[in-house]
Amino acid sequence: MTMSTTLARCLSKKQSQFDTVRHPYSLSSMATAQAAHIPGDRLAKTVLLEDSSGYVAAVIPSTHHLKLSEICEQTGRKLSLAHEDGVREVFRDCDHGALPPVGMAYGTQTWLDDSLLTHPDVYFEAGDHQELVHMSTGQFLDLMADARRGHFAHRIM
């Protein structure tokens, strides 16, 4: 698989400047960072959450843990981790576990943790387990302009 069609359209619509990084197949965000030889705190990880009102995508650094209570407080919702069926439903054109951060392009409210924005550049999944999108933090902020921002992740490593 290559870059998801939805992500490619989103990047084109926003006229994003980026490059891609190929890496050996990996299944976890930390393994991806190692395989791609990039710092884990610059790799965005997308976690899909849900409640009775629908889905929320939370975007955090791969070196961080999502604090569910904090994102619930900030969103005013009673969220839990989305079931696998929900992930497949929302991110239809992505491999399981290779979710790009542009939940908005998938019709999903998206929250971005500010701790991801402390470096000059950001990497994120392109929709498969072998390619990352790489862009400056400024370009990433432009791409994520419709996302809400907060602090709901804490460093684990």
Automatic annotation (TrEMBL):
Alphabetical list of InterPro entries matching this protein: YbaK/aa-tRNA-synt-asso_dom_sf, YbaK/aa-tRNA-synth-assoc-dom
A Pfam family of this chain: tRNA_edit
Q: Which residues cross the membrane?
A: none
Q: Which residues form the YbaK/aminoacyl-tRNA synthetase-associated domain?
A: 29-142
SUPFAM superfamilies per the UniProt record, alphabetical: YbaK/ProRS associated domain
Molecular function terms, GO-annotated: aminoacyl-tRNA deacylase activity
Name of the protein described by the UniProt record: Uncharacterized conserved protein
